[in-house]
Every structure is written in structure tokens, then in C-alpha cells.
Task: inverse folding
């Protein structure tokens, strides 16, 4: 267990300045006396007080010291087994406490303070700031942070994920805010930047390499476990967490980013520059800004390209939500082109739909025109089917529908009325009635109905009754083949013959 640095400092001060014994220090700091002994032993300072009593481990200390010098990470259990084979009689738990006092302390590595030229270097990293609830979706709140190594100017942008598109959008926003590009950008082992790393060999993400070529800067990885190489952006993230995000309220992502932008050019730029305490970060950045690389004439396109499949319903699924498309493109593969605010759905070079992007979960984002077109198409198909059946049974109906259309009649209602008359009176009677209505130049179902009634009265027939039964009732009324009764007579004769024999 590692002792906190503040506890170590108190132990050393109480022991060597106040002359407290080990037991008193342990009681006052509420720690085990073995911890106090270990800290004093690792500090390498002379012990104050009476000499320690002889211990069983004293004879084995040269071997233990030599072994730990060659193998500093050797476990106490393995070392106990080695000295046990050499005759050590103590218990393993007591041995572990003693070894902690004699284990060599790892040598602290010293780092040089790295200084960079103006406009030469920037550092990039992500910071995780909890989650944001949007409707039914719980999305991670990520902070893209870029800092200039010379002036310590910070750029901060919050996103709802750490995907490559948002990673590059953060770069573009930072370059635009600063009016230029640093010559070198340092990256940690981010998935957005480094695909594979083996020793000193680095394989950058090809999308990032193409983006760096467009803006003409050099992407450079930092060495593993080298905090001094990328310490500026890590301290900047800690500064953002403590000085900006703590206890901050906001209404949404756009509001949070607006506050972050104002904070970067205000409070963050007004702090003292670490390399030049007499000036502020903003003053040093004003000079560094002139040394940055110029922005290219055309910004890099940063749309998300996702191939999506349209099923039986006219919707595509993208980022947890469904977006409508024209019903003529079902059962096809389309392409989603998305930015932070808009979702476009394209078929090749043709853009089929545009929707405002939703960050909810399970939402249906619809264009009313897409749904209405599908409804109209279904109604038209039903009307077309009825028109075909009517034209086949009653050829004169086509002429009546054409005249009705010329006068602005409702063809769907006329077709439905003629179909009901066809079911009641039959095709021949309706044909004659339609011809009579056409002669009278009244292309309306009421004229056809009056003609049919007149014909029925002239024939003296009973009024037709339209009775439509459910399918299961119609099945019960199916004709049944009656059984011949002669078989029953034969059975009776055979029974009588058997009785006479008795």
C-alpha cells in the first residue's frame, strides 16, 4: 500500500524535528506503527532513539538486500520462501512487515521542463464529464480540449460522443477560433488518432492523416508514460473541470458550448501565463497567433457517412432514431450524411430527405409529405383495383366516370356507389341503367339508381336486399350433399331378417 505524501511528510517531521517515538507518531496519525517504520527506513535518515532490538531477520538481511537490488519487484511471499529454505524461522506475516522496511524505494525520475516556440505545438485530448440525459437517451458528455503549448491558450468544445467526426470538428473549430494552425499537434494513445502501437512504431488513423494533410500540420504521438510531454493539455482538462464545469448549470449542449467559448476568451485567457507570469495568456496568445499556419481556403468536409438499409416501412435507423424517407425507396440501401444539426438521406447523388437531427432514443422523425404520399398511394391503389373490376363487369361505367371527372366529381365515391349497385342488381341491369343516365347526361350514381328502380318496377320484381354476412357465417351456409335414404331401408331389411331367424 502506498503511503500518501502528506502522511510521509508528517511522519518525517514528527520523528526528526519533534523527536516523537514511533508509537506516538502512529497513535497521533491513526496509522500502524509498521507504516511509520517503513517510511523512516525508506527515507534513509538515521534513526533517533534507542537502537532496535536484535531480530531473527538480521542474519538474512545481506541476502535480502542483494536479492531486492537485483529484483526490486520480487514479492514478499516468494522472498519468504527463499529465506525459509536458507533457515529463517520467522512467520510469513511478520516477515512481510519487516521486508516493507527494507525494500528499496523506486528512484524518482526527473523531467526537463519543455519549452516550445510560438505557434510550434499544440496538444489535444478528450475529457469525460459524466452523462447528459436527452429524452430517453443517456449520452456521454465529452470535452474536446486543445491547448497551445507556448501561450497555454485553451479551446474547449463539448460533444455527445468521442467519434472521429466530432474529434475532427473540434480541430476545425479550434483552428477557426484561433485563426490558424500550430505546426505540430501531440496526441496520446487515443482511438481517434492511433490505430496500433508497437514500441516506437505508430499506425495513425488514415482519416486523421488525411485531415492533417489538408491543414498541413504534423500529427505526433507522445511516448508512453511520459506525462511531461502532454502535461499541458492534461492540466488544462483539470483546470476546465475545476474552474469551469464545477457547479455549472446549462440548458443544453448549445448553451454549454456558448458558455465554454465565453470562458475560453475571458477567464481562461485572463490567467497568468506560466512561462511569463508578468503577462496573461491572452497577451501571449496575441503574439503567438501571428506565428500560426494559415487556414486553407476550403474547410475539410466533416459529414458522417453511414450506409443504411430501408425495410418494409419507409424509415432508416441512424444513431438510435428512425428517419422517414419516400415510400418509393423501401427495400433499398441508402446513405446517411449527418452533421451535428441535420441528417440528410441520399440515394447516390440525389438527396431524398432532410431532417433535424435528434439525440433522443427511439424517436420517429418524420416528414409529413412522406407519410401523406404513402397514404395517397394506398388509396389510389385501392380505387384503381375497384375501377378495374367495375370496367370489366360494366363497360359503360368508363364513359360515366370520364364525364363525372370532367364535371369535377369525386371518382372514388362514384366508383364505390356503382360497385354497391353492381352487387345488388347485377351487371346487365347496371349496364342498361348507366346507358340511360348517359343519354340523360346525368353522370351520377343517383341517376343510375333511379333507372334501376324504374326497371325493377316495370318488371314487378321485389326490391333487392343487400345482405353481407361475415366469412365464417358464409362458410356455414355452404351446400351439403344429402345422403341417399335407400341405404337406411337396406339396413332395416337386414335387421328384420336377423330377427326372424331368432
Result:
Amino acid at each position: 500500500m502506498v503511503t500518501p505524501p502528506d502522511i510521509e511528510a508528517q511522519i518525517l517531521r514528527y520523528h526528526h524535528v519533534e523527536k516523537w517515538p514511533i508509537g506516538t507518531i502512529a497513535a497521533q496519525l491513526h496509522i500502524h506503527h509498521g507504516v511509520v517504520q517503513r517510511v523512516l527506513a525508506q527515507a534513509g535518515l538515521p534513526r533517533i532513539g534507542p537502537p532496535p532490538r536484535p531480530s531473527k531477520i538480521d542474519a538474512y538481511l545481506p541476502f535480502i538486500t542483494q536479492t531486492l537490488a537485483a529484483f526490486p519487484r520480487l514479492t514478499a511471499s516468494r522472498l519468504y520462501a527463499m529465506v525459509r529454505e536458507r533457515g529463517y524461522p520467522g512467520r510469513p506475516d511478520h516477515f512481510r512487515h519487516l521486508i516493507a522496511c527494507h525494500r528499496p524505494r523506486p528512484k524518482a525520475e526527473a523531467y526537463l521542463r519543455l519549452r516550445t516556440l510560438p505557434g510550434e505545438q499544440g496538444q489535444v485530448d478528450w475529457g469525460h464529464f459524466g452523462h447528459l440525459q436527452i429524452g430517453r437517451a443517456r449520452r456521454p458528455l465529452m470535452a474536446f480540449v486543445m491547448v497551445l503549448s507556448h501561450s497555454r491558450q485553451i479551446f474547449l468544445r463539448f460533444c455527445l460522443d468521442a467519434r472521429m467526426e466530432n474529434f475532427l470538428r473540434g480541430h476545425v473549430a479550434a483552428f477557426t477560433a484561433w485563426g490558424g494552425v500550430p505546426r505540430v499537434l501531440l496526441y496520446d494513445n487515443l482511438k481517434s488518432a492511433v490505430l496500433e502501437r508497437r514500441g516506437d512504431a505508430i499506425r495513425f488513423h488514415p482519416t486523421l492523416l488525411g485531415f492533417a494533410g489538408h491543414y498541413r500540420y504534423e500529427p505526433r504521438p507522445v511516448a508512453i508514460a511520459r506525462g511531461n510531454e502532454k502535461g499541458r493539455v492534461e492540466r488544462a482538462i483539470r483546470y476546465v473541470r475545476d474552474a469551469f464545469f464545477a457547479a455549472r448549470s446549462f440548458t443544453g449542449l448549445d448553451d454549454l458550448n456558448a458558455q465554454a467559448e465565453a470562458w475560453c476568451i475571458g477567464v481562461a485567457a485572463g490567467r497568468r501565463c506560466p512561462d511569463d507570469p508578468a503577462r496573461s495568456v491572452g497577451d501571449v496568445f496575441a503574439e503567438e497567433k501571428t506565428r500560426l499556419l494559415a487556414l486553407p481556403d476550403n474547410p475539410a468536409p466533416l459529414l458522417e457517412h453511414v450506409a443504411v438499409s430501408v425495410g418494409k416501412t419507409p424509415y432508416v435507423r441512424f444513431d438510435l432514431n428512425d428517419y422517414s424517407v419516400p415510400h418509393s425507396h423501401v427495400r433499398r440501401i441508402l446513405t446517411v450524411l449527418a452533421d451535428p444539426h441535420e441528417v440528410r438521406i441520399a440515394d447516390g447523388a440525389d438527396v431524398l430527405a432532410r431532417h433535424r437531427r435528434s439525440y433522443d432514443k427511439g424517436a420517429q422523425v418524420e416528414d409529413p409529405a412522406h407519410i401523406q404520399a404513402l397514404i395517397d398511394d394506398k388509396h389510389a391503389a385501392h380505387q384503381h383495383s375497384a375501377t378495374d373490376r367495375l370496367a370489366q363487369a360494366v363497360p359503360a361505367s368508363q364513359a360515366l366516370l370520364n364525364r363525372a371527372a370532367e364535371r369535377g366529381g369525386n371518382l372514388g365515391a362514384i366508383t364505390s356507389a356503382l360497385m354497391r349497385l353492381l352487387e345488388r342488381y347485377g351487371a346487365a341491369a347496371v349496364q342498361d341503367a348507366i346507358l340511360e343516365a348517359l343519354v340523360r347526361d346525368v353522370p351520377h350514381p343517383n341517376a343510375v339508381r333511379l333507372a334501376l328502380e324504374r326497371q325493377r318496377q316495370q318488371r314487378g320484381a321485389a326490391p333487392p336486399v343487400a345482405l353481407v354476412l361475415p366469412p365464417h357465417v358464409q362458410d356455414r351456409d355452404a351446400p351439403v350433399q344429402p345422403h341417399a335414404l335407400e341405404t337406411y331401408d337396406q339396413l332395416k331389411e337386414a335387421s328384420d331378417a336377423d330377427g326372424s331367424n331368432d
User: Anything to note?
Assistant: The two ends are 112 Å apart (CA to CA). The chain has a mean pLDDT of 85.
